[in-house]
Amino acid sequence: MSYPNGPMYFKGIYHLFYQYNPEGALWRDIEWAHSVSRDLINWKSLKSAIFPSEPFDINGCWSGSATVLPAFKPVILYTGIDSQNRQVQNYAIPANLADPLLTEWVKPDNNPIVEPGTEVNASAFRDPSTAWLSFNGQWKTIIGSRSEQTGMAYLYKSRDFLNWTKAEQPLHSVPNTGMWECPDFYPVARFGRFGLDASVTGNWVKHVLKVSLDMTRYEYYTVGKYYPMTDKYVPDNTSADGWNGLRYDYGNFYASKSFYDPMRKRRVLWGWVNESDSVQDDVSKGWAGIQAIPRTVWLDLNGKQLLQWPVMELNRLRWKRVMMIHQKLVKGQNVEIKGITAAQADVEVIFSFSSLDKAEAFDPSWVDAQAVCNQLGSTAQGGVGPFGLLTLASENLEEFTPVFFRIFKAETNHVVLMCSDARSSSLKDGLYKPTFAGFVDIDLSSKKLPLRSLIDHSVIESFGGGGKTCITSRVYPTKAVFEDAHLHVFNNGTEPITVDYLGAWSMRSACVN
């Protein structure tokens, strides 16, 4: 299972398509697998919707998107690798709109509908986005590409969704970012948590452009202004527009794709979580790659970044809760959270502290959060922190994955570092066990820091500061498995930390068949 493709809501059913090799856990012979759900949690697998069969996609059916046209007509746009190994853009439509599951899809004979012109790199031209309808009746979509090392989103226009014309200028481009994969472009309301259809524009919205960077294998996004008259997107100057930009997730999370859910008036984000073991391990177990828990996304009140939170339906899997209230943690202390299945849990905690006077000095050269976390870790004593959770911990702490905060004092403000550190996650050799980290842009006047972590055997998804900074880690413990997994809260800073509230739930497994 790989990149999510064309998620959509259609007539009461959620659809998720994803890159899939039916022959094994290696990247080849890619087709579009198809699963459906009524609640985003429990899923039923159907037969593949699209698979290589024609000259325009005979060497692979790569990523794309779904758009629901007027009169409830869904269309898939996808990249096909044709018989000349060019990346071309194709479309597919349901064979029977009366079928509520949209089981069968057909690829009309007039494919491809977009071919790379002479000015386009035919080996770097992929992943058409969900289309939006402009004020003048034109449909528009963007396609990821690069020119030399300048990443870009080419803009294409059509009045009938069949005949597409390339705009004179890309929607946006950035030098030295390399190939842009899986571009996603959508509006967000300036105020409120509700989502918007891709075609909404106006002064009361901002736009988000997300790209997946093939060179680095992580993503970044900007928030900015879209000008429909000139078809240009201009990022705000509140974050970097490049490798150091804002990320949905600072961990193992790539090739994400969002969609508008008209049923609940929200925007939902899917992301792919890759393996961190060896290719041989993947071949042995027969599968590789999972989808992260779907998230709701909306614009922070500060207008500078997005907030993310697991979809509300996930709470239905909670079944056994334990609580901790007003637990003080002094330097070097950790307290186990007992009474739940720690290998499959949902944990929400609010940490507090009485003073920031002991916060360590922040070095202005620390622009790379991951490098800072890698240097300082979770065990070295600090001032305010490190404090947080020890997840997937073995009984004697030979294995554990800490998710934690550390607070520093800069010249004019305090800086919050959030980390998810896999270095101690497993005793097994040959694994990729990185430190992941991001800074949390949060007001500390309340002297509180919230954290939520979703723990599911080999994946830990964490949401810091109410969803301001998110980190996903993929880990493979050998001792901290099933009933032998443990969960702790800890503090290794000199400033005492209080667990104001902790709720931890054992989680039922979702139904996937």
UniProtKB/TrEMBL annotation:
<comment type="similarity">
    <text>Belongs to the glycosyl hydrolase 32 family.</text>
</comment>
<dbReference type="InterPro" id="IPR001362">
    <property type="entry name" value="Glyco_hydro_32"/>
</dbReference>
<dbReference type="Pfam" id="PF00251">
    <property type="entry name" value="Glyco_hydro_32N"/>
</dbReference>
<dbReference type="InterPro" id="IPR023296">
    <property type="entry name" value="Glyco_hydro_beta-prop_sf"/>
</dbReference>
<keyword id="KW-0326">Glycosidase</keyword>
<feature type="domain" description="Glycosyl hydrolase family 32 N-terminal">
    <location>
        <begin position="2"/>
        <end position="310"/>
    </location>
</feature>
<dbReference type="InterPro" id="IPR050551">
    <property type="entry name" value="Fructan_Metab_Enzymes"/>
</dbReference>
<dbReference type="InterPro" id="IPR013148">
    <property type="entry name" value="Glyco_hydro_32_N"/>
</dbReference>
<dbReference type="GO" id="GO:0005773">
    <property type="term" value="C:vacuole"/>
</dbReference>
<dbReference type="InterPro" id="IPR013320">
    <property type="entry name" value="ConA-like_dom_sf"/>
</dbReference>
<protein>
    <submittedName>
        <fullName>Beta-fructofuranosidase, insoluble isoenzyme 1-like</fullName>
    </submittedName>
</protein>
<keyword id="KW-0926">Vacuole</keyword>
<dbReference type="GO" id="GO:0004564">
    <property type="term" value="F:beta-fructofuranosidase activity"/>
</dbReference>
<dbReference type="Pfam" id="PF08244">
    <property type="entry name" value="Glyco_hydro_32C"/>
</dbReference>
<dbReference type="InterPro" id="IPR013189">
    <property type="entry name" value="Glyco_hydro_32_C"/>
</dbReference>
<feature type="domain" description="Glycosyl hydrolase family 32 C-terminal">
    <location>
        <begin position="334"/>
        <end position="496"/>
    </location>
</feature>
<dbReference type="GO" id="GO:0005975">
    <property type="term" value="P:carbohydrate metabolic process"/>
</dbReference>
<keyword id="KW-0378">Hydrolase</keyword>
